[in-house]
Write a structure and sequence with these properties.
Strand order of the largest sheet: 2-1-6-5-4-3
Order of helices and strands: HEEEHEEEHHHEHEEHEEHHEEH
Radius of gyration: 52 Å
Oligomer: single chain
Strand content: 15-25%
């Protein structure tokens, strides 16, 4: 059961059914209340019409015995000022709801006495209006009750209508209209709802179940394909993209983009491991050879070569460690760094390197160590390719800080200006590894620039060589203080 309702399909079906059920109950209740109200109003109107007909006869002086009290077999009572029943339907056996439970008329008191006049005033006060002889009251009262006529008991709605007569004082006519039609209609509507609503809910649940299954079928296809990719570890596979152009299609497209990015990342990691293994093999093999020769022939030990291979191995290990940390998503420290001062420190002690540009602080936010490594790598690359001079400049450019390293060498061909930032790429294949490095310096520099929210690009230098531009967001707090 928990597995069934744990599915999106089951939850969607249940939710839709519940919403429709609540709507149906609310609508059904409103319909029943409206139907009952309309039927009760209609019954009240019928009762008032019957009472006014009898009241009209009384107003013109019709004797009690000649009143039309048995029309349509409805209960009718005529009560005088003293609350005495003076006329009633012939077959009336029992009545309630009118305030007068008597069903057999009693002799009326003399209409001409003083008591009659006093009762007239009291009756007028009861209805809140002063009636003239022969006048029928315009305001009625309505009540619900029951009556038994000729052995049949039913519920009725009673209307009370006052009438002022010339010789009998103020009389009140009670006439009832049966509520059987109201009860029958309400019960019929309720029965239809009790039978129809469950059937309608069953149809809603069934349709929702089918529609949801159809809508989620592509999702199930995506899930199966992802499970197959996980089992086979074949990242070249892709999930099917439905031709619906909806959220599921966008989900499939995003999933394929993620798989493509993951495949590229895995391939890049595999290439990185292979290249790193190849680069590490050379200095390790050279160092081992020198140590083996030294062990057999101490006098032949090339100490300088061993130290150089050790330093090269140490630098390569440091580069690989930094790249691994960058690939792991390590965020740079949010320190405040003066890029101009950092450029001067990186150029200090280097032959043929000049620094120009801003004299004051030029602040950026980031890791001082990593940004220093970028400048050092750019200067190492420029010195390897320059004929005689390397120039470093730092300047503000709007909301950015630009550090530029230019040399007067041969420059970088336009076709290779992106490839040189790939790992283990060296354009000069004939160059020795000892002189040219492992091809990680520019890759590290760009990765660090990107992690700091900046860019690293290469262009043609004014002197004809290569111009590397490191563009970083300016430290807003530092810039505001400088202004």
């Amino acid at each position: 059961m928990s597995r069934l309702f744990g599915s999106v399909r089951a939850r969607a079906t249940l939710a839709a059914t519940l919403v429709v059920a609540v709507a149906l109950v609310a609508a059904g209740t409103a319909v029943l209340l409206s139907l009952r109200s309309n039927l009760l109003g209609e019954a009240g109107t019928q009762a008032e019409r019957s009472a006014r007909e009898v009241a009209t006869e009384l107003a013109v002086g019709t004797p009690y015995a000649d009143l039309s009290l048995d029309v349509d077999d409805r209960p009718v009572q005529v009560v005088d000022d003293d609350g005495v029943l003076v006329a009633a339907s012939e077959d009336l056996e029992r009545i309630s709801g009118t305030g007068v439970d008597v069903v057999k008329p009693q002799p009326a008191a003399s209409p001409g006495g003083e008591d009659a006049d006093a009762d007239d005033d009291a009756d007028d006060d009861d209805f809140g209006e002063s009636l003239e002889p022969g006048e029928i009251g315009g305001r009625i009262t309505v009540s619900d009750g029951s009556a038994t006529i000729d052995g049949d008991t039913e519920d009725y709605r009673f209307a009370a209508v006052p009438v002022k007569t010339d010789d009998r004082g103020t009389l009140t006519v009670y006439a009832g209209a049966p509520l059987s039609a109201e009860h029958g209609a309400v019960n019929t509507a309720l029965t239809v709802m009790l039978i129809g609503f469950p059937l309608l809910l069953a149809v809603v649940a069934w349709v929702t179940w089918l529609v949801t299954r159809r809508a989620l079928r592509p999702v199930e296809g995506i899930r199966r394909e992802m499970a197959a990719i996980t089992a086979s570890e074949d990242l070249a596979r892709r999930v099917p993209v439905p031709a619906t152009h909806d959220e599921v299609a966008r989900l499939a497209s995003t999933t394929n983009e993620t798989l493509a990015a993951l495949e590229a990342s895995v391939e890049r990691q595999r290439g990185f491991v292979a290249d790193a293994s190849h680069e590490l093999r050379s200095p390790i093999a050279s160092l081992r050879t020198q140590l083996e020769v030294a062990a057999a022939h101490p006098e032949l030990l090339d100490l300088d070569g061993a130290v150089a291979d050790t330093v090269r191995l140490q630098r390569l290990a440091a580069d690989l460690l930094l790249l691994a940390r960058l690939d792991a998503g390590e965020r740079p420290a949010e320190a405040r760094v003066d890029l101009a001062a950092l450029a001067r420190e990186a150029a200090e002690g280097r032959t043929g390197v000049s620094v120009r540009g801003a004299e004051g602080p030029v602040g950026v936010a980031g890791s001082r160590g990593q940004l220093g490594r970028v400048l050092a790598n750019l200067l190492d690359n420029a010195q390897r390719h320059a004929r005689s001079a390397v120039e470093v400049s730092v300047r503000r450019d709007g909301d950015a800080v630009v550090a530029a390293v230019a040399d007067d060498g041969d420059g970088v061909p336009a076709a290779d200006r992106e490839r040189i930032f790939e790992r283990f790429v060296r354009l000069d294949a004939a160059r020795s590894r000892d002189d040219g490095g492992a091809g990680l310096g520019l890759a590290i520099a760009r990765d660090v620039a990107v992690r700091h929210g900046g860019t690293l690009t290469v262009h043609d230098a004014p002197a004809g060589g290569a111009l590397f531009e490191l563009r970083l967001p300016a430290d807003r707090a530092r810039t505001a203080r400088d202004m």
